[in-house]
Amino acid sequence: MMPPSICLLLLFILTGTSAQTWRHCTDLPPLDLLSFVLEKDTSRRTPGVRVTEEGGMRGVRFSRPHPSLSFPAAQLLVNCDLFPAEFSVVATLKVSHADLKRNEYIFSLVEENDEDNRTQGAVILGLKIAGSRLHFVFRGHAGVTEHWAFRGAELQDGRWHTLALAVAGRRARLTVDCGAPVDMGLSRSFPTDLHIKGSTFHLGSPGRWKGLFSGLVRQLVLVPGSDATPRVCPSSDPGRMHTLSVPPLLFDLPVKTQKADSHLPSYEAQLKVSVGPQDSCSETLRGQLWFNPHRKGLYLCDGAAWIPMLEEHKRLDYVVEHQVLATNSETYDIEVFQMPGVGLMAAMAHRSTSSGSGVYLWSQSGFQLYQSISTYGALSWRYFTLGKKAFLVVSNSGGWSEELAEEESKKEFSVIYRWSKKRKRFVTYQTLQTHCARDWEAFRINGHTYLAVANHRHGNNNHTIDSVLYRWNRRSKSFEVHQRLRTSGAYDWEFFTVGPYHFLVVANAFNGVTTHIDSVIYVWLSGSFQVFQTIKTFCATDWEMFQIDGRVFLVVANGHRLLHGRGPSEYAINSTVYELDMSARVFIRFQDIITYSAVDWEYFRLGEDHFLVVANSFDGASYSLNSVLYRWQGYEGFVPVHWLPTTGCSDWEFFTSEEKSYLIYSSAKAPLSKVFMLKTH
User: Fold this and answer.
1) Which residues pair with 105 in a beta bridge?
2) 475 CB-near residues (< 8 Å, 6+ apart)
3) Contact residues for 126 (Cβ-Cβ < 8 A; gap 6+)
4) SS3 letters for 589-602?
């Protein structure tokens, strides 16, 4: 009988989703509605509002109706005729049940007036508190006003609360104080054609001045095109929050007692701005500002961490060749890692058995050979740590006969190397029998360290064999077999965690007959990995997991299509990006990208932009072809922005050094690797 925990994960129903492209405002940063109506000069009083400090935090109270609390939507959502179909609202509020009226709007978006300008239009969209519930109001399909009421959001207790409301299609999720999210089951999706041309934002009212919001507002931010919850809640621990955007007027500084007829003081005079290297943020530095000249950013200490108030975000401009690195032989894989006390290093898996593989050390001019290591048809490296000890494990695909007994000569062994602080070199630590090992993955679960090897084949024909999960034994100080997982021409492992769940996905490439086979996602349950989901792939060679604004993605590199051993292989095929459907608990197809015998994906981030680069290795005629760099464009998915000439590209790695960003690729068809510098502006 299947354990209940598996049933809980697998018995969710996959629901159909549809997406309609919204072509405006996808590149807008978080929009601070509150700062838009407050005076930039903190020494001046803003009409219609009163700054009040309660509960150790400062907020704004709307004291009287005033035109300054309204502004045209076009000033904030520039060149936008439609409201974003996907967005989030972040607000920090303090509301007392005794003061709360029947209906109080936190903010609203109101349509333009009628032609005679006598009657104000209706509310297009708004957030309000009615009774004991938070309501999200909007004009739905066919012009019908819809109310989404969130139960269980206790906001009227006179305490400060930070809420994050995320809306996307039929999904609406409210998170209060980084606690358990409240999901709305929606019969209809949020409209993709909500026209806002000529509309007006109103803070603290529905625009008719029939009532003002009686609570305090400290933060009110609209985030077009994404879910801001992961940025506000960096962890699942309730109460651990980051500020998204707070106006300078509300910085947590001491409030001086003043007479009733005195003017507000200049808070700028109380601020101390430090420049250059800075100590960690602490209670003694609360409310102080720090300017980092390297990042060109202004940060505020909230007593625990430096919160960015103004930061220059890097944008990729162009890519330039930085280094052509001659290697001893073709290279299948590169592992870039930081070795404490030594510097940035790269372990390269060289094909040649006679020359072995190399570990390279980075300098300003590029990578230089630091150590040669004897390997046997090396296909990949993986760096990991155990406490303060550092290790490298290599995937050997060839036999090891020189140092073994004669009866062992036909066996294949991969090797774990340990960093020797005394010798400043990697030395042999443990050997493990493998079968044409293609990849190693290292990870930790519940305080234990694991290694997973992707065994590709046994001999020349048997591809359906066991790949092995090893666990570190503290007593024997070695890795021991923990679990065997049946795989078919396994090429790659990818480990990742979503919430409390740990996943391991294998790229199955070939079963001896066809490349059109299932790759498998496993979930960790009761001390072992068990099948969570299968996905049809075509000679899958790599999986890459990444997150964008709280959304979880998996992208697979499909190598080529060969059906039942008949006909020529197809190398120009789609690789696919999958997204985790949180409600259905399954990965669903998000985007197909044409690739040419893809063997690797690399995800990285520059500033606020997200990128994927693919290793295209063969188009059926030539190994010299472009690998492509894609940028995340929200509803458009990933779009190509740079084409990088490569030869037999087998791996990409992203790394940074001294505030500069780089990409390095390895070639499986030429004895060279290339480093590209990513020029930003």
Assistant:
1) 128
2) none
3) 105, 106, 107, 108, 109, 136, 137, 138, 206
4) EEEEEEEECEEEEE
Cα–Cα dist 665/325, whole Å:
10
Query: Which residues are within 8 A (CB) of 244 and not within 5 positions of it... i.e. 6 or more apart?
Result: 30, 90, 219, 221, 223, 228, 231, 232
Q: How would you classify the pairing of strands 586-596 and 672-680?
A: unpaired
The reported pLDDT for the residue numbered 681 is 75
| Cα(629)–Cα(643) distance, integer angstroms | 6
CB 670 within 8 A of CB 647: yes
**Would the CA dihedral through 606, 611, 617, 619 be positive or negative?**
negative
d(CA 560, CA 541): 10
Rounded to the nearest integer, the mean pLDDT of the chain is 84
Instruction: At 212, list the tokens.
Output: 């003002």
User: Mean of the pLDDT values across residues 483-492?
Assistant: 98
Contact criterion met (CB below 8 Å) for 431 and 442: no
Look up residue 13 and give its DSSP letter.
P
- Residue indicated by tokens 């601070």: 32
Mean pLDDT to the nearest integer, 172-190? 81
pLDDT band at 342 (very low <50, low <70, confident <90, very high): very high
Which secondary structure element, helix H or strand E, spans residue 569, and what is its range? strand 566-570
Distance CA(661)–CA(306), nearest Å, equals 23
536 in Cβ contact with 514 (< 8 Å): no
- How far is Cα 87 from Cα 101, in angstroms, rounded to an integer? 28
Q: Which helix (H) or strand (E) holds 230?
A: helix 229-232
Cβ(492)–Cβ(480) below 8 Å:
no
pLDDT, tens digit, 9 for 90 and up, residues 536-547: 999 999 999 999
Q: What is the DSSP letter of 64?
A: S
Of residues 584 and 490, the one with the higher pLDDT is: 490
CA distance 331 to 313: 34
Mean pLDDT, residues 55-72 taken together:
83
Task: Report residue 456: phi and psi, to 5°.
Answer: -80, -45
Residues in Cβ contact with 284 at an 8 Å cutoff, skipping those fewer than 6 apart: none
- The pTM for the full model equals 0.59
Q: Alpha-carbon distance 458 to 436, whole Å?
A: 7
Q: CB within 8 A of 407, min separation 6: which ones?
A: none
Provide CB contacts within 8 A for 133, sequence distance 6+.
149, 150, 151, 153
Q: Are 547 and 227 in contact (CB under 8 A)?
A: no
CB 611 within 8 A of CB 35: no
Rounded distance between C-alpha atoms, residue 50 and residue 245, angstroms: 19
| Residue 268 confidence (pLDDT) above 50 | no
The span from the CA of 662 to the CA of 549, in Å, is 24
Could you read off the pLDDT of 139-167 as tens digits, one per residue?
887 778 888 888 767 788 888 899 999 98
Residue 587, pLDDT above cutoff 60: yes
Higher per-residue confidence, 639 vs 583: 639
Report the pLDDT averaged over residues 659-666: 95
Q: Identify the helix (H) or strand (E) that includes residue 34.
A: helix 33-37
